[in-house]
Design a protein that fits this description.
The protein is α+β, with helices and mostly antiparallel strands. The chain contains seven helices and nine strands; from the N terminus they run E-E-H-E-H-E-E-H-E-E-E-E-H-H-H-H. Belongs to the bacterial ribosomal protein bL9 family.
């Protein structure tokens, strides 16, 4: 379907341009959201008659979006989620979660403004893009942690998924042989027999007393 854009749409075109889009995209988003008109003679005439009003409205929305962007700039938000020792979440943080977190801080952001290509599935400090307007974009930090205390540690640069954080050891100092030595002559039966012999010797010493 061909439509006339009533505002700039990223990766699609500028206000006033006639572009071809998928029918579903036009019917389900562009047209009902008031971002485009069907491309026909009547709507082209309508657009030209209302161009100055549309441009003024777009400028107003852009300025409003920029004000929100100025407040959001440099902010970090915390998402507390259950996760294992390695940092893998027992679920995920999706765009709807980002919306709820921002709403709790007083920011009214819609689903289509959050750019999250895939749900977040690990603890850590993640960057999330927010498109407040076709010409106003900002990136926020989402600090995903098991507790607020861990979030504070992550904010200071600590990696909670490192071996040092999990096991209390310096992972840079670990060697493969610290975990498993393929050349070692290890036999569980020998170890059991040795333990048994030590026990018998201890018993004999006790009897001698």
């Amino acid at each position: 379907m061909e439509v006339i854009l009533l505002e700039r749409i990223a990766k699609l075109g500028q206000m006033g341009q006639t572009v071809k889009v998928r029918d579903g995209y036009a019917r389900n988003y562009l047209l009902p959201a008031g971002k485009a008109l069907r491309a026909n003679a009547a709507n082209k005439a309508r657009f030209e008659a209302e161009r100055s009003v549309l441009e003024a409205r777009n400028l107003e929305r852009k300025n409003e979006a920029q004000e929100v962007a100025d407040v959001l700039a440099g902010k970090s938000f915390i998402a507390v989620r259950a996760a294992g020792e390695t940092g893998q979440l027992y679920g995920s943080v999706a765009a709807r979660d980002v919306i709820e977190i921002l709403a709790a801080e007083g920011f009214n952001i819609s689903r289509n403004q959050v750019v999250l290509n895939a749900p977040i599935k690990t603890v850590g400090v993640h960057e999330v893009e927010i498109h407040l307007h076709a010409e106003v974009e900002i990136t926020i930090e989402l600090n995903v942690a098991r507790t607020t205390e861990e979030a504070e540690r992550q904010a200071k640069g600590e990696d909670l998924t490192s071996a040092e954080a999990i096991y209390g050891v310096d992972e840079d100092a670990l060697r493969p042989e610290d975990f498993f030595n393929p050349d070692a002559d290890y036999d569980i039966e020998d170890e059991q027999e040795e333990a048994s012999a030590e026990g018998e010797e201890a018993g004999e010493e006790e009897d001698d007393k």
